[in-house]
Amino acid sequence: MAPGRAGPGKGGRGGAGGSNNNNNNNRKPQANNHSRKARGAAAAASASANKSNKSVKSLANVYSVEDEDESKSSRRRKQYLDEVDNYEYNVDEIEDEDDEEIDSDEAFDEEDEEKYENFQFYGSKDAGKPKKSKKTDKGKGKKVDSEDEDMMDQSESEEEEESEEEEGAEYMDISEMLDQPEEEEVALPKKVKLAGFNDSESEDDFKFGDDDDEEEEDDEEDEDDEEEDEAEDMDEDEEEGGKDLTSFIDSLETSTKKRKQDDGSASTTKKARKNLRERTEAYDESEYNLQAHRSSAAHSATGVSNKKKLDILDLVSTIQNEAGFSSLKKGVQALESGPNKGKSVETLAAPLPKIVQDRLNRQAAYDESKKEVSKWLPIVQKNRQADHLAFPLNAPAPVAPSNAALASKFDASTEMEKEVEKVLIEGGMQEKKLMEFEELALNKMSTEEVEKRRAELRQMRDLMFRDELRAKRVSKIKSKLYRKIKKKERERNALTEEEMRELDPEQAHEERLFAEQQRAQERMTLKHKNTGKWAKDQLKHGNFDPESRQAITEQIERGDRLRRKIQGVDSDEEQSGGESEYSDLDDDDVEGIKNRAFDELAAVEDQLSKAEDAAKEAKVGKGVFAMKFMQDAAKRNKLQAQAQAEEFRKEMMDEEEEAAKSSEDEWQSSKKGKKNKKNVAEPGTVIGAGGRMVFGSGVEVPESKDASGKAKAVKMNSGGQIQKVALSGGHSTKVEGPVNVKVAGMKSGLSATAPEGDSDDGSANPWLKTEKHGQGKIARKNDKGMTKDSSKVDKLQAKIKKQKAEAESDDEVQIDTSSFLTLSKDNQKERGLHKDESASKAPSTKASSQQAKNVKGGAKEEVSVANDDDDSGDEAEPVMVHAKTTAALSQRDLVARAFANDNVVSEFEREKMETAEAEKPKDIDMTLPGWGSWGGKGAKKKKNVVVKKAQPGDGVEISKRKDAKLAHVIINEKRDKKAAAYAVNKIPHPFTSWAQYEDSLRAPVGKEWNTNATFQQMTLPRITTKLGKIIDPLTAPFK
Amino acid sequence: MANDKKKEKKDPVLAIVPKYTRGDGTALDNVNKIQNKKLKGGIKRREKQFQEAAYKAANSELLLTEQGGFLEPEGIEKTYQLTQRALGKEVDVATSHKMFNLDLKFGPYSIDYTRNGRHLLIGGKKGHVAAFDWQAGNLACELQLRETVRDVTWLHNETMFAVAQKKYVYIYDKTGTEIHCLRNHIEVTKMDFLPYHFLLTTIGNTGYLKYQDTSTGQLVAEHRTKQGKCDVMSQNPATAIMHLGHGNGTVTLWSPNMTTPLVKMQCHRGPVTALAIDHAGTYMATAGLDGQLKLWDLRSYKPVQEYYTPTPAASLSISQRGLLGVGFGPHVSIWKDPFRTKQTSPYMNHLQPGSAVQDVRFVPFEDVLGFGHRNGFGSIIVPGAGEPNFDALEANPFQTKKQRQEMEVHSLLEKIQPEMITLDVGMVGKMDKAPIQLINKEKKEAWAAANPVEAKELKFRARGKNSSSRRHLRKQAKNVIDQKKVDLIERIEKDKKERAKRRMGNEDEPATALDRFSGKKRKME
What we know:
By secondary structure, chain A is mainly alpha-helical. Chain A is 67% helix and 1% strand.
């Protein structure tokens, strides 16, 4: 403040003043360090307005300068500060050399010494400071010391060390002092000065010790020295008073003269001199002329406040010996001593700039409020994380009335209640009475018993309570480490696999399977999801990038496709009768094993037949598999497999037969009661005509018995396998013979007719079949012994054979239709299924065919007749399984009847191809023919052909169609715009990936799918309030 | 893992839980890598909630007190040999009452049961329609419509039903009063009702599949199948997709959203004669004139099993517990578990002698199968057909009138929009997998459609119609008459007359024959 203002005022005078200013500016921090003093000065200056601004400025300026080189200026400063009031010294024009000339040491020559013999030097009281003594003149130093000591005796004996400590009080005191009543103005001027000087010194110490580096200490020392010197001057003035004043003025004048010699302008100095004269009025040194002192003090205060050394203690010291001021003394002591001495200094510090102060205030306030708010964090966090908040919070749960409470309050009001109560009273069943009775019973027991019982009960309760507490505590432990350790412990205690195997192999096996399954599932589910690094990255950033979006979509789709595929495979497995069916069977169950074996066989054969089907389909089309050698090879393979399967089955059956025979007898006897083998053939009907023919041909009872036994054996197997048995043409021919032989010969029969049999295997779709199929049929018909028809058929087949492979199934059917019609009719009749129609037609059918029918056919007729008789009784079930023998012919018939000219499959294929072609992405050539190009000979092709590229979403590649691998299916790839309105385009907040989001949707929330409790819990709004209840502000538990 | 296993053994409920879990979310796999704490917490909490929900649902199975069972043959007995007569002797009286045959004259009957299985609707080809509570034997109404009846179906409850008659579809209430005539539906052969969408779907000789909202009366969609006449239709109860069977052996799947079939399958080599879809929507059974009976997995569109029928099946039905009923010729045969395993023999058989079976339906929540045939209606007992436990909030066989009314209101409030009918059931709310360009394009189009640029109307400003006096008149309030206005009107009139006079010449002069060439119009009196 002051330095800033001082600058411009003196700038014109140049020289030292300018340099001082500069220095001052440079060392602003230091100036700040001294600001306490300066501030004090400023305050004093403002208080007394009679002094010129200029002098104040210069004072402040000088004071704040502390460079090493300015020992003189600082000296000058000190002079002012020490109330010498020789203001001429602060004139800035003073040259350095002049300054040096008026160095106090030099100025204080021997004359002076003589003069100021009695002068006491301030600051020299510190005897321990060697530098001071050193720097003062040798002779003088001693003097000073002694004098100092005297002073110590005089003044400080009472003050003790206070003088050093009471820096804080001084400024206050000055102002106070000024207002003090007369009686208090008792301090000795000497002491006042002394204290003041000490104060300044100690204050300097304080400052530097506080803030400055060690470098500054030199400065400080210099200053101290200077201060001392100046103090000397000043004190001389004051002490000698008017007596020595003249000589002192002379000496000063000499010095000023010296200065004048160098300095041109003397106006200011003159003026200062004038002041000096005024100021050098002497006053008696006594406690009573404080008034005079005060005026001087006030005067000096306008200049330099901190050199005003008056102090309350100085004032009070005079009354030390007097009684009646003890309380005052105490009060003063309380004022000066205490820990906040230093602070009291700060109270006077000028307020910080408002901005800074506000900032500090805010910071402090923020810290405070932060502390306060942080207390709320836990409860706020808890509430935020809570699934549900019911306001008012922490409302006490409505207390469910206890039984006792209800009982005690109960008052019989209704008639029935009254009645009941009456009855109870009559029966002596009142509550009170019961209680009394109980008590009596207790009384009857000996005290020891009662004690014992109570102790027991107490122990029990105690244990239970403890256990409960323990369980609670353990369950509440959140330490992961603890859980980990516990888990480890459990695992350690758990059985290893080997141990398990020893103990319970079955269990071990199960466990292992389970583990493996889990692993497999894990592996399955991890793949083809957006868990890759790239995908994740893309999901995070590249959502708006169309390409990456496309890629991700594809990825998801692939995952879907795979999953779909897996499902499809699953269902296939299911259809092929997987192991799951038998998983619940015991392993040691022989029957089960056999069943399984047979099923496996059946599965193998199924596969074979399917393969053949496929091969045939392929045959219709083109490809490697349609070639003859490939088919042959496949056939060979299949034959081998079949042979092996057959062999295996035979073995199994041999075993089984022996077992079956034993049970057969009683079964047969029970069966005999009924009419005939028709009943016997329950699944045999399913099995096919082969089985039936056995009974038909060999009507003899023993044979039928055997046959039925065999049938039973067959029956025990599952359908697929039986089908196979029935299929083989050779088999049906062999059936005529004894059963054992037949079973044995089955294989040979099979192998013999294998080529035809093969084709039969795949006869699920008879209209699909080519010549091969026909052959199979012929064979079968031959077996049936329809000689006449068979010859016809033979011819037909030959005809068909002549046709090339290109002849499609439909053609074949067409041809067959006419020729087979009669056959099929017969067949229908045979099976006796359509009694209504066939019954009337039966007599009208060709006699030849009737005759041609073998015994079996006759038997069937019988059956059908029987059925007609009692239709509520046993009736042959309409068989709907593809039992190739009977079904094939009728199906042929049906097919022939149904689609004479249809070609649905190829039509469908064509449609599919067209659709795929139409829906595939296409680039469009936008060039207009003839536009911008030349025609005629030698015309060049246009270069800049405009092609509109297919955009993503424009279509679907044929290979990527959902139905790419399903020949019989066309799946629409068009976009369902209406449904798309219900889909989501952006990942909703706060989810970061689609998977997360879609997972959150996967379980339904509605009450149709959930229990009521779950539904309510899931749909409960996060916050519920009770109507009409006051919601109090949150109360924290810490309060 | 071992611990889990043990736990599983300890708690029998855990074994059932997988039935109720909706797939295990993948979200939990990477949950710990999620930075966002709120999200992480949310996911964890949600997964826990799902698990709990599944567990509780599984736990609540103990409330399903009824258990279903099938016929259990002993020794050499065969279930398909058991006749209804024999069965009737074994069952209790109440059950044996459910076994009956109605001899009716009006020729092959199509039938329908309400969703709770309580009410039956039969429609004879020759115009006989009857609705009744078949268990109590209360007849609601009986009509003789005197024209061909091709199909009948109940609407959302037993108070209304639709009848496909000779030309149109009519809706009657339970007293037999005709409420509506749907003239949009012409020559309908087959009808069905989607209860959650309130859609009546019809298909007929014209080959148009139509969806009519019976709550609002709107015709929601109308699709041309381009396959000609069709009389085979069935809904997928799980997805509300309509399946149509066509003459060329294909089965098409439709939703009201798409004008083209969602899926087209070549199922048979001859016309499809019957079609049925199981309760969960996973399997479909089709029968064709080629004599085949094929079972399909609707998830993979692959055939699962193939059987044949001695005569082409006329009708198929799949019961709530997965029994397949096949009506062919005079027979009804029932197959147990025909989808997963290849069966060699049927579960049960029934013969309706001398009468071809027309329509076969299993009764919901009952072990009964009803079938309409040429000479009336038959009802037979099929043990194990119906779901033993019913959800009273879904379909309550014992519902009171009040409950019915309440249910009606609820189902109307919870009606699903027809746009939600898609192949993917969980489509709503899922990600739209279409490329972003396409989506943006669609958005733009939608916006353009919502904000059409109105073509500015061309102003035809006839000359002389806009004089200052006229404009002034126009601007005046129409209903206020002041002197100025009157004067103005008078002046205009006067001017007009003068102009006419000037144009026409003197009116007093008689018109001459040459006036017609003058080009001026002159009033001829």
